[in-house]
Amino acid sequence: MTAPLIKIKNITRDFILGNEIVYVLKGIDLKINKGEYVALMGPSGSGKSTLMNLLGCLDTPTSGQYILNGKDVSQMKDDELAGIRNKEIGFVFQTFNLLPRTTALDNVALPMIYAGHSKADRKARAEEVLTQVGLADRMDHQPNQLSGGQRQRVAVARALVNRPSIILADEPTGNLDSKTSEEIMGLFNEIHALGNTVILVTHEEEIAKHAHRIIRLRDGIIESDNSNIIEKELASL
Question: Is the pLDDT of residue 12 over 70?
Fold first, then answer.
């Protein structure tokens, strides 16, 4: 049996605010296999953003263990985490996070600079992923020359460029109208169909329905995981 891509065991995350300790994650256990399409949902204050930051190696837990692609990242230092992020995780944010005076091609190639790839390799790979997301004719455009949907496609291409283990998308349609949102979710569906593991953080039920598994958090714990519900239904047949 193949080991899960993500294995989280009894993860907690506390924050000190003044004289108070705020217990945000209260013992999370989670496994995500390679090739899954997962949505993380929960109301404000549920802990979903904190969990996303831990999954994305943007933060470390107070206690517990996080194994990502066979590596224990829960105790890693900042520079080690930066290396893991660049190699293993492609991020897509609500606000696109593109460099404003840089072409789509150079925005997409940026993670490959940190990974140490040659200029020729960066250009070839950036062109490949921009074509994949439908922007072959927009490579030399800067963000202000692109629509919101096109900017998010650039961000998706940038997330794919280093062939990461996981695409982690935080409210990726939050700044888009409903028609453009559906187009971007169609793109995520295509990316998942090509074998990528996709983890989506959203508060929108319509967006979450694109995922094949929905994990709901409330008050720092996992309230429900619909893959478990399916397994229980199968077991009762």
Answer: yes
DSSP 8-state symbol, 47: S
Per-residue pLDDT tens over the stretch 124-138: 999 999 999 999 999
Count other C-beta atoms under 10 Å from residue 136's C-beta. 11
The pLDDT assigned to 44 comes to 87
Residue 226 pLDDT: 84
Which tokens in the block code for residue 209? 């329905």
Residue type, 157: A
Q: Which residues contact 122 (CB under 8 A, 6 or more apart)?
A: 109, 112, 113
Element (H, E) at 151: helix 148-160
Strand order in the sheet with 166-170: 89-93, 166-170, 197-201, 37-41, 213-218, 221-225
Alpha-carbon gap, residue 162 to 157, rounded angstroms: 10
Q: How far apart are CA 140 and CA 142, in angstroms?
A: 7
For 235, counting Cβ atoms within 10 Å of its Cβ (0-12 exposed, 13-18 middle, 19+ buried), the class is exposed
Could you report the per-residue pLDDT of 55-84, keeping only the tens digit for each? 999 999 999 999 999 999 998 999 999 999
Q: Is beta strand 37-41 parallel, antiparallel or unpaired with respect to 20-32? A: unpaired
